[in-house]
Structure formats: C-alpha cells, structure tokens
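Duplicate of #3305? Posting structure anyway:
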C-alpha cells in the first residue's frame, strides 16, 4: 500500500520527466537488488525482527507479507505516481477494487448514486453486498452532469462514475458532478479502466478514488487478474485501513506481471488507439452498421467531453448494427478468425462479444436501434482485422 513516493525515492527524481521515461523508471531500484533491472518476486509471509523491541515496535521496513513486500511496494509506488494520488492499494481483480473502494467510503444507512452505465458486475455488488449492509443505491442517467444535485439525499455518501460507460460508452461530465459532490461533502469514485491514468487523470479533476482493472491494459497480455485503487489525501487513510482490515493482498507474481506490463503500457496503448480509430472509422461507413459508439470519433455524442478531459483513447468501443435477426449477428461473430469471442479486454489480442444493456438498465432506456457488438482492437495489423470483419459481414448477410 504505497504512498505517492517510490520505495526507492525515485519518484521525486523523475517527477518532471515525460511519461515514457516515468513508465520505465518508476518503482525500480536496481541498486537495492544487486543490479537486477526488475524488482525480484519476493514470496513470503513471515518477516523476522532482530529483537523483541523491533518486533513489538514494528521498526522494520516490513512486518508481515500481507502488509507488503518489495515486489508489491514497487508497483504500488509507480501507480500512485502515475495516478497523482496519495496512495495505491492492489486487489485481486478489478471487481474487488470497485467493491473495496465502495466499502471504504460507505457505511450502513448511507445512500449511493451509481451511474446506470456502470460495469454490470459492479451493479450486482450494489444489489447484493451493499444492500445487505443497509446501503441503498439509486442508479442515475450517466448524462445528468450537474443535474445530479437533484438526486442527492441527506445521507448520500458517494457518487460512482464510469466514463465512458461500460459497453454503451456514454461520456460523463465528471467536473460538473465532482463540483456538486464537493459542495455537499460527498465522496466521488470513478472506474478509469478504459483510459488508464495515461489518458485520463481523475484526481486532477477532484475525484477522490480512481479505480482501474489492472487485468486489462496494465497487464496487457490476458494472463493477469488485478485491481488498482488510487486515493487522494482525504480518502487514503480510510482506504488503507479497510484494505488492511479485510486482509486483502495480491500474489507477488501478479504484482511482478503488473510491473512488467507497466513498462510497455504507453507504446501498447498508442497502437491500440491508432488501430481502433482506423477500424472504427471504417465501420462507420459500412452499410450493416447503424452507429459506432466511440467517444474519440467526432460523430460521437460524447466527443466534446472526451476532447476536453482526455488525452487519448483505448482500443475498446462498440457498434450498433442495423436491425438483423440474432442468427445474423451470431453468423458474423462465429465466422471471425482474428477476433476471439471472450470476456475481458486489454490484452494483445482482438475480441468481440454481443451485448444488450436493456435487461439491466433502470434509470435510462437502452434502445439503440439494433443489436450491439463490443470490439476490442488488439495489436494485430488493422488491415488484417478489417479483412476479417469484411468476411464476417458477408457471413451476416448470407445468414439473413
């Protein structure tokens, strides 16, 4: 659970460097580990103290494996520096990060405002875990902006945002919502997995807790489950205490994979962004496509907010097909050779899934005009991916 200074003090030395340099240098101290470039994987639970006084006084750098070790400390410090928060904790998954963040700032009897466009498993946490603890959730229109003031109650404890929205990609006016929250002493949280702190920095806009699923772009290779929560100074003590009291930790091997992925995050994101924009623009001209949900496209309703608040876009977006039978959508997806059919995203490979938000939206109606397909554009050549989608559309037409 690192504060916003690296375990080796290097964050202070490099804070004025470009992000490319910081991604390579943050959280590493080769001199501490006999010159090895990467922080070793430290496995261990028990940490020995030289004397009873040291044991009881917790004078050592580490006291117990669950409370941290060099492998975890390095990646936590690097992520805290990138997010611009006071401290970072790691959790075993992105969903556990969302759950822990909510639990750290809510109490029994509180009221939560949750965006209607949130990642569906986070929605289930509200209906099960939080409800069981006596916390009531109201889902709100993600486009409400400053109008969220009308939804506040005396017991509203937190507002949770996700921008762009999961699958549906609505852009939220985060500064407007944060301004209302601060005026009423309400904590704000955001799921920032889509943009990562490279393309969007929530703390700079006043958000208290910034969350990302490190499973996605931080890991980058579809072989890691990890959650990251970054807290500002006001929320850090509560988050750190809750993380420790619940006994949450991650395996050092997973922390090592996250640190390895961090070093190439920028170059990978640049390729994801470039290829996704190429393919999204191509899809916008296809006769089978009704609309493309990608905030970096000028045609997207949320493009102005994206341009104002974000410095880039990732490889994830959705398309809405013109009305066709389910058999046509299935034929399209089943015929794809380079796009795998699988959940999650952020890895090197391209993925596609069908989706329909209508069954779980409660504050807003989901009626986009046709079936939805979410695409993650990986690191393959975009022309090859376009060729694969072209033959997929041929299969769709043949099935209809």
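Output from current build:
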């Amino acid at each position: 659970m690192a504060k916003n200074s690296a375990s080796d003090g290097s964050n202070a030395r490099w804070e004025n460097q470009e992000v490319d340099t910081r991604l390579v240098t943050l959280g590493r101290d080769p001199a501490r580990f006999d010159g090895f470039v990467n922080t070793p994987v430290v496995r261990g639970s028990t940490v020995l103290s030289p004397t009873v006084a040291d044991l009881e006084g917790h004078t050592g750098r580490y006291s117990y494996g669950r409370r941290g070790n060099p492998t975890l400390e390095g990646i936590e410090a690097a992520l805290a520096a990138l997010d611009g928060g006071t401290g970072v904790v790691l959790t075993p998954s992105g969903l556990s990060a969302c759950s822990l963040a909510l639990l750290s700032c809510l109490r029994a009897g509180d009221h939560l405002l949750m965006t209607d466009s949130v990642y569906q498993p986070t929605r289930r946490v509200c209906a099960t875990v939080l409800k069981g603890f006596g916390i009531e959730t109201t889902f709100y229109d993600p486009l409400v902006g400053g109008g969220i003031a009308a939804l506040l109650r005396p017991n509203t404890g937190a507002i949770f945002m996700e921008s762009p929205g999961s699958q549906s990609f609505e852009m939220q006016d985060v500064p407007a919502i944060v301004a209302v929250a601060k005026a009423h002493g309400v904590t704000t949280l955001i799921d920032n997995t889509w943009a990562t702190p490279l393309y969007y920095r929530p703390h700079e806009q006043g958000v208290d807790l910034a969350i990302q699923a490190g499973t996605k772009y931080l890991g980058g290779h579809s072989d890691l489950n990890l959650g990251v929560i970054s807290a500002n100074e006001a929320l850090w003590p509560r988050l750190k205490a809750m993380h420790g009291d619940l006994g949450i930790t991650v395996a050092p091997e997973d922390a090592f994979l996250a640190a390895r992925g961090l070093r190439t995050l920028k170059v990978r994101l640049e390729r994801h962004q470039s290829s996704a924009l190429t393919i999204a623009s191509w899809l916008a001209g296809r006769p089978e496509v009704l609309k493309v949900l990608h905030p970096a496209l000028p045609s997207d309703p949320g493009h102005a907010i994206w341009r104002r608040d974000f410095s880039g876009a990732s490889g994830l977006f959705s398309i809405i097909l013109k009305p066709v039978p389910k058999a046509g959508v299935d034929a399209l997806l089943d015929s794809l050779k380079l796009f795998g059919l699988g959940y999650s995203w952020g890895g090197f490979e391209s993925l596609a899934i069908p989706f329909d938000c209508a069954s779980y939206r409660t504050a807003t109606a989901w009626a986009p005009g046709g079936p939805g397909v979410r695409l993650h554009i990986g690191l393959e050549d975009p022309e090859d991916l376009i060729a694969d989608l072209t033959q997929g559309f041929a299969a769709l037409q043949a099935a209809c």
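Confirmed duplicate; merging threads. The first strand starts at residue 2 and ends at 3. The chain has two domains: 2-263, 266-399.
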